[in-house]
Design goal:
about 200 residues, mainly alpha, about 0% strand, globular, disordered C terminus
């Protein structure tokens, strides 16, 4: 466990302290703020609800249940049970180095709810509609998770755990929903290839 913590701290120092730039110092606080990406997520979810297609409406339900369950499970159970301090809080009490680009956070660090919730959304879309539909949301989940480390409010392990927990919970929720409301597969034509013309 000590080795894992040291690796986590070293990776944090690399992402938060070394691999930085002026552009990222602006972009990462921007992308990590839910107000800047939540409208796009909400619009995508509303498009599913009002699409008129049963498959997309069931996916909207799966996404909603996945994200709500993930948020509550991570925020109300795991964070309180683990009680890990955020990097910025640790830096105030020790000689740990942390570049904090956001106002100080007082909640616990493990796991990252931002990472867990966006991963749950992406995993639900992938599970219900396939990888191509889920790729944009996977990219969003990655950027937001990375931004949480860059701005100094989470360790890399917090983010990785959030991605894993959110994905697993979403897959479990989606499978349960698909058993309850199975979606018919697309129709398959029964046309058989024409036999070659005999001479």
């Amino acid at each position: 466990m000590e080795y894992l913590v040291q690796f986590d701290h070293s990776l944090f120092a690399l992402l938060n302290g070394s691999l930085t730039s002026g552009f990222l110092d602006w972009f990462m606080p921007f992308i990590t703020d839910a107000k800047n990406w939540m409208p796009m997520i909400v619009l995508a979810w509303l498009a599913m609800v009002f699409s008129g297609r049963p498959r997309l409406r069931i996916m909207a339900l799966a996404v909603l249940v996945s994200v709500v369950f993930t948020d509550l499970f991570c925020g109300q159970i795991i964070k309180k049970a683990v009680g890990r301090r955020r990097p910025c809080a640790l830096a105030q009490e020790t000689d740990f180095k942390c570049r904090l680009l956001l106002p100080m956070k007082t909640s616990k660090s493990f796991p990252s709810n931002h990472a867990a919730n966006t991963a749950a959304f992406a995993a639900a879309v992938v599970t219900m509609c396939g990888w191509q539909a889920g790729l944009p949301f996977i990219a969003i989940a990655f950027l937001i998770g990375y931004s949480r480390v860059y701005v100094g409010v989470h360790f890399p392990l917090d983010v990785a755990a959030g991605w894993l927990i959110g994905s697993l919970l979403a897959i479990a929720v989606c499978r349960a929903i698909r058993r309850r409301w199975p979606v018919a597969p697309p129709p398959v034509t029964n046309e058989s290839p024409q036999s070659p013309v005999q001479p």
